[in-house]
From TrEMBL:
It is a multi-pass membrane protein. GO terms for cellular component: plasma membrane. This is Phospholipase_D-nuclease N-terminal. It comes from the Bacteria. Its main location: membrane. The chain crosses the membrane at residues 12-30, 42-62. Keywords: Cell membrane, Membrane, Transmembrane, Transmembrane helix. Residues 22-64 form the Cardiolipin synthase N-terminal domain. It is found in: Cell membrane.
Amino acid sequence: MNVPLNEIPWGAIAPILVLQLILMITALVSCIREEKTNGPKWLWILFILFISLIGPVLYFVFGRRNN
C-alpha cells in the first residue's frame, strides 16, 4: 500500500495534523506548568509525545490534578 505523496488528499489531512499539533503543544505546556499531576510528570510528557492523539487527551482527562 505505497501511495505516492502527490495522491494524498493533503487538504483533508492538514487540518487534522494542525489540530493534533496544537493539542500536543497545549498539553505539554499545561503539564510543565502544573506543580503536581496524577502520576509522575515525566511519564505524562512521554504519553503526550509518543501516543500522538490519545496521549494529550488522556493527560487532560486523567493527568491533571483538580484542586
